Amino acid sequence: MRKIILSVLGLLLIVGAFFGAKAIIASKKNFRPKAEKVVKTVFTEVVKNGTVPIVVPANGNLRAKRRVELYSEVQGVFKGGSKLFKTGTAFRKGETIIRIDAAEYAASVQSAKSNLYNQLTSIMPDLRLDYPDIFPKWEAYLNGFDLAESTPELPEMVSEKEKFFISGRGILTSYYNVKNLEQRLSKYRIAAPFNGVLTEALVTEGTLVRAGQKLGEFINTDVYELEVAVSKTYSDMLKVGEAVELTSLDSEKTYTGKVVRINANIDQATQTIQAFIEVKDNSLKEGMYLEANLDAKEEPNAIEIDRNLLLESNQIFVVRDSILDLIDVRPVYFSDKKVVIKEVPDGTTIMAKPLIGAYTGMAVKIYEEKTTDTQGS
């Protein structure tokens, strides 16, 4: 009897547990959170077309506009002058930069001049007797002949008889020989062609200088030129005389220059054109690196935006009733970070900053900058 009672109780317990579990399961509610639609915020701006200046960036190193490489045309020992032949030495126009010992050569010049003087003296009696009308002219020339000075130019010969007589006596040959020697004697002294500074000195006092040897380099420090390479795309836009803004590498100082020359030849390797910008400033130095912004042209009815806002299909995103859409545009100029585009209607709200995952038809919210008024006591 006991076993029967225990069996019945076990059966009732199992049935009760089954229905109890079923009731618990039925009473459990499944809460599923409702997915909220996320609306991203975008930065926008309203288009107002205007005139956009197209600025072409370029860079290069300064070089003196006026420079002279000094070479010797004669041979001799380099003699010291009033100023040392050292880099950084300044010379004024006409001052002697280099003087080469010409004592031996000068003696041969004096000998030739003396020979010419003797020839002129020997013809004077014949001129007095045969050509009394031209005698005073040649007598005055002979009286003004100074062996210590440069040989004066021969008197003008007006008649054929006079030319034949003077030439027949060898006067013309001797005269031009002397002038040639004097011309070469002047090459023993190199004078400064303009005010400037010696930037390279390859010889020192006492050095034996040979003909054709480079002696140094001399520049004018008043005016410099910046040579820049500009893409051939803008060759028609550049104009001589245009003002150019120049900045130094550290961007601490700005200079103003102007385009003075534009090369007509295109570099075949780089497809660029050389433009030369003239700039004047006392703080400039040879070799200084400068960056230039060339005002190539002005593009009317255009706007400028970041390059990363322009899609490869030449389209940009606009916002219409809080929905993103695409419109076609026409880019006219690309720089490193910006692009100038046209054919965007005035009043169009365009996306001002890139949005990751943006697509046509995407719902967005326009960012509105909040202003906080602060009152002070």
Automatic annotation (TrEMBL):
One of its GO terms (molecular function) is efflux transmembrane transporter activity. GO terms for cellular component: efflux pump complex. Residues 226-297 form the CusB-like beta-barrel domain. It comes from the Bacteria. Residues 67-215 form the Multidrug resistance protein MdtA-like barrel-sandwich hybrid domain. Signal peptide: none annotated. InterPro entries: Beta-barrel_RND_2 (IPR058792), MdtA-like_BSH (IPR058625). This is HlyD family efflux transporter periplasmic adaptor subunit.
